[in-house]
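Re-running the complex after MR caught last week's input typo. The corrected sequence lines follow. Everything else is unchanged.
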Amino acid sequence: MEIYHPQDEELLREMRRVRRSGKLKRILWGLLIGLVLTAALGWFLFGQLFALAVCEGPGMSTAVPGGSLVLIRRGTEDLQQGDIVLFETDDGWQMKRVLAMEGDRVVVNTYGEIRVNSLEYRADTFAGRTEDTGVTTRRLTVPEGEIFVQGDQLSLSVDSRYRSYGTVPVEKVTGKASFILWPIARFGMPNTTLTEGGVGQ
Amino acid sequence: MKKVILKILAFLLILAALGWLLYPTVANELARKEKLEKTEKYLRAVRVMKSETLTRMLDDADEANGITPEFKEARAAAEAKAAEEARKAEEEKAAAEARAAALEAAGATPEVTATPTPEPTPEPTEVPPKEYRINEITGEAEFVYVTAEPTATPTATPEPTAEPTAAALPTDAEVEPKETALPVTADGEATGAAEAGDLIRPGDVFTAHAERSSTRYRNLLDFGDGIIGVLEIPSIHVSIPIEHINTDVRPDKALVHVEGSSLPGETGNTHTVLAGPRKQKAPGILGDLALTGDRMLEDLDRVTPGDQMMILLGNRTLLYEVYNVQTLSPEGLKGWVAERDPEEDRLTLITERDGRRLLVEAVRIRIREATEKLQAEDSAKLPADWITILALGCPVLLLTLLIMFVIERIKKHAYRLPGEKKNPDDIYNDDIYNNEVTQLDVQMEEEDGNRNDGSK
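Corrected-run output:
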């Protein structure tokens, strides 16, 4: 029986052909694995760790303009005063800033000042005045397991300053805003520091 | 070699397509950034301002609007009284609720105490029907939202207002072709604002001759860089600084306050007119090249009666509700009058739309009466989980594809066969690895087999 001994060039070409065959199959397999990995990673990251929210409305329009895409970090263990939080209400979700935590004494006085433990706080993005709203004077201590929220647009935001709105239970809080993805002008971490000091001198 | 060029071309084409798709967005966002920075600067300037300075600026503006101190006092007293009554009602309601809660805790069934709580009148939530009318001045058809409010449209006779000189629509004899759009005093000098009792007729600000506004006007409500305040329309995501009109600050470039109309205020008997372009060029060279500019009042035609608008004025916030949207031709705008009502503050936005002028008219409402609406506007939407996963998983997917591509390229190089050229692309031009041809070669070899004995 004649054994065919291929010459170098034929061998070369045959080996190339073999190498190229099955490429499509490899690509398809790789794609499938990629999709599965993506879905798993996506589910973990964005189902468990993070959430995305689109924030509308004038209540926080200075810090988070209407239509902004915000990345929320789920979890309420390390909530602090000054954080922007996403929480659930009877009519859906809202995004506001934490002004006081449980146990803090909050006083709304006749001058439209909001004092938390006798101190006034403000952030750079505050605008407007509480006096322009229909908020009435009150004093309260934030109950256990609840937080006092306030929108940056003091005149336009309906929040815990209103008696009818009240404080928000922590279990209704999805998480805090850790990054603003859109618009580009607000890209980055939102400012969460509140400075002590009055609203206007 | 051909294949390489084709691949490069394809890559460039895809890049160009992506760029063409994304570039307007990028240019938009850069222009938007400029606006947001201006707004931030404004808020910062307001924050460091002394409250006396702020009050004085607002008082100066009121004076320029022709509001006498007595008028203001009367209005302020009426406002304070209304505010006080509202607060008392709130507190009574809260006390009644507390009593009911206490009764319930004590075991007795709480009686529903009929405390007459002043409910804010429910705002009309439906869009009123549009009506097409013939404008008496221009004879052109235009659409007008028909609302319950007995507010004047250019085709109706204006109701009695504070001006004793208020007349019916100006007849042809009165509408002189004006060189400028500004009202003039007896001296012929353009005033900073209309005097009380005057009719404000801004004219067609988009085509009016660019007059230099008076220094006095420009000093009023100047919170820095000539910015009066910030206009916000949440329903169409608008947040634009308002500037004083001037020779170089025109309504086709920036959102301007029209000199001659009232400056924004809370006193009543004012009518503020603002005019702005549909788009704004992005700053610098990008704007010159941009295929599109940042949205200014482009979406203004999506505003319907019932929508809210705000003007941030210093540390005050003025809330307006739209009651009428209409389009006028430029001639119609020339004849349009900004009426004033002693108990209302009005706001009109004007922008261009297909060669005509779009007017959005709004009236100021008290914030405490709009609580429910404001609460409903603040919302956050969470896109469905799978959308989130997909949207943010895309970069991961693309990364996986890229990695796979790189692996394939590495394999190619790693498995380079002896004698193989570095550039393996010429292999695609080889049609010799076809089995048939190899067999033919084998046959030929066998025929020559005698000659090639011993060779491998």
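None of the earlier attempt is carried over here. Residues 266 and 400 of chain B are 59 Å apart (CA to CA). Chain B touches chain A through 75 residues (CB under 8 Å).
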